[in-house]
């Protein structure tokens, strides 16, 4: 088990620009504000959604199959901030629904286009959360 203690740091709120890339904007905020540990919440809507699924058997992310070029409401979008390859990295999952309420979701990918998004990023203070390759899962996990 992995356990570390942190305290609350700064809290940032943002309204993302129309048609901006959701994941790119989250990473941009964390890089600009030097956030190396934290958590993220997003509400709003997207005009297109790209997400992935980690195949535990092949130990690979699958992205190309999971794309929706339609209006979707963000039902849940949360994640964390840590350090990967020496810079802030946002690991975010998203669930979104269509006009009939059908939900889809997974690992948020670049290429998701914002219709409207309000973001809260809570920094946590303590040692940086560093990601390293975990040999068992082949994921980059906290060390």
Walk me through the structure.
The N and C termini lie close together (10 Å). The chain is built from 1 helix and 10 strands, in the order βαβββββββββ. It has one helix at residues 22-32, and strands at 7-16, 38-55, 60-62, 67-68, 72-84, 87-97, 103-108, 113-125, 131-133, 140-142. Strands 1, 2, 3, 4, 5, 6, 7 and 8 form an 8-stranded antiparallel β-sheet that branches. The protein is globular, with a radius of gyration of 15 Å. 8% of the residues lie in helices and 57% in strands. The protein has a single domain (9-127), classed as Hypothetical protein, similar to alpha- acetolactate decarboxylase, domain 2 (60s Ribosomal Protein L30, Chain: A, 2-Layer Sandwich), CATH 3.30.1330.80. With 143 residues, it is mainly beta.
How do the helices and strands line up, and which of them pair or pack?
Elements (H helix, E strand, L loop, with lengths): L6 E10 L5 H11 L5 E18 L4 E3 L4 E2 L3 E13 L2 E11 L5 E6 L4 E13 L5 E3 L6 E3 L1
Antiparallel strand pairs: 1-8, 2-3, 2-4, 2-5, 2-7, 2-8, 5-6, 6-7, 9-10
Concise overview:
This protein has 143 residues and is mainly beta. The protein has one helix and ten strands. The strands form two sheets. Strands 1, 2, 3, 4, 5, 6, 7 and 8 form an eight-stranded antiparallel beta sheet that branches. Strands 9-10 form a two-stranded antiparallel ribbon.
Task: Using brief descriptors, characterize the structure shown.
60s Ribosomal Protein L30, Chain: A, two-stranded antiparallel ribbon, 8% helix, 143 residues, globular
């Amino acid at each position: 088990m992995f356990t570390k203690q942190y305290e609350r740091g700064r809290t940032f709120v943002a309204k993302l620009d129309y048609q901006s890339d959701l994941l790119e904007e989250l990473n941009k905020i964390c890089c600009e504000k030097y956030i190396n540990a934290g958590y993220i919440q997003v509400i709003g809507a997207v005009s297109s959604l790209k997400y992935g699924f980690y195949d535990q058997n092949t130990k690979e992310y699958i992205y190309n199959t999971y794309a929706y070029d339609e209006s979707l409401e963000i039902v849940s979008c949360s994640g964390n901030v840590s350090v990967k390859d020496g810079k802030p990295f946002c690991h975010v999952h998203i669930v979104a629904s269509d006009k009939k309420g059908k939900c889809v979701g997974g690992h948020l990918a670049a290429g998701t286009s914002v219709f409207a998004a309000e973001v809260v990023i809570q920094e946590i203070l303590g040692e940086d959360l560093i990601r390293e390759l975990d040999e068992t899962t082949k994921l980059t996990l906290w060390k």
